[in-house]
Amino acid sequence: MWPYFFILIILVCVVLFQKKSASDYEKEILEALDEGLAIVDHKRRCIFFNSKFFRLIKAHQIKKNQPFDSIATTFPQLLQECVDLLQKAQAGSEELLDAFFLKKEEYEMAISIRVKKLSNQHIAVVLHDKDPEKREFALGKEFIANASHELRTPITIIKGFIETLRDLPEVSDAMLEDIFEKILRNCKRMEEMVKNLLILTDLDHLFSLQKKPVDFLLLADNLKHNLLQLYPHAAVEILCLEKEAIAAIDKSLVELALLNLMHNAVKYSKESPKIEIEVQKKDQELMVSISDQGIGIPKENLPFIFERFYSVDKTLSRKLGGAGLGLSIVKKILDKHQGTIFVEENPYGGTIFRLHFPL
Ligand code: ADP
């Protein structure tokens, strides 16, 4: 990406200087760039800069034709790096690249600087913010580390049981059954985790939704029947004042999100799960809430609940076959619909998840 942007910048600059003044169209292109761009003349005066440059260099003010070295900035070190490269470029080098990392106590900033001589008269200074890429890379690393850790646990358990079976000369039928049951449970856990990891990856790479008008009342009714087939002891009530509640959604994804929440409502309930699905149409939104009267989520855990691999009680979640991925899938599906999801304490005990879909 980066070299292509740079070629684009050079081309635009050539057009710009041939015509002496940039048209609005050319200025718009330079403003739309993801990079900060400044052009200085042979006296190192700033004859052009786009707003991204102004923001990245953290300038207080830049006046047209102001000497580049005198720009007032919150990050003088970054300015100095640019000035050093400009001096080198003026001394003859064609193109110079430098990476600038500024570490502050509360955050880390990574900016690469590229200085390119356009002619004897003009030099381009291009700043590229590396932070989003770095953050994405760090998140990817964290994700792989978490996934590996979560998968290692059931693998270790299964390996342990197989070694036990191999080493024990005689195993009673009861013990054998118990071991098989545990191996099977851990295999199911791994299967569920791999399925969720694949769903998350698919969602990360999904660029368009298959949206169609769907009546949420019918959808809720179908999901209620699906859930009751798996958990006949659950009580599910659907509340809605409207005759129909239609919104354009990707049906299979929203079904997946709602089912995830309903499964959790059952999983984290005591003996007899009571679930309420409420559908409401309001202004430009369709709202669906799923409430349960289960064990609830402590207030201090609520802000983290949609993070990947997050569980309030790891031991309990593992026992129930979860790895803290379900809610991050739900959140991702809502994001894809430009919707929002909120979680709150149910005043009657338990949890309420509120989903808002734009109409
Ligand atoms: P998991 O597969 O572990 O259930 P989720 O992402 O679906 O992962 O949920 C994350 C955590 O949020 C769970 O481990 C559980 O601690 C908590 N949680 C989710 N839904 C509920 C609920 N309805 N009631 C109580 N706790 C819940």
Which helices and strands occur, and which strands form pairs?
Elements: H1 2-18, H2 24-32, E1 36-41, E2 45-49, H3 51-56, E3 59-61, E4 66-67, E5 72-73, H4 76-90, E6 95-103, E7 108-117, E8 122-129, H5 131-167, H6 173-204, E9 211-215, H7 216-230, E10 235-240, E11 246-250, H8 251-267, E12 274-282, E13 285-292, H9 314-319, H10 326-336, E14 340-345, E15 351-358
Parallel strand pairs: 10-12
Antiparallel strand pairs: 1-2, 1-8, 2-4, 3-5, 6-7, 7-8, 9-11, 12-13, 13-15, 14-15
Helix pairs in contact: 5-6, 6-10, 7-8, 8-10
Adenosine-5'-diphosphate (ADP) is lined by residues 264-265, 268, 292, 294-297, 305, 310-313, 317, 322-328, 351.
In short:
With 359 residues, the chain is an alpha+beta fold. Strands 4-2-1-8-7-6 form a 6-stranded antiparallel β-sheet, with helices on both faces. A 5-stranded mixed β-sheet has the order 10-12-13-15-14, with helices on one face. The relative contact order is 0.07.
Distinctive features:
359 residues, alpha+beta, six-stranded antiparallel sheet, five-stranded mixed sheet, 10 helices, 46% helix, binds adenosine-5'-diphosphate
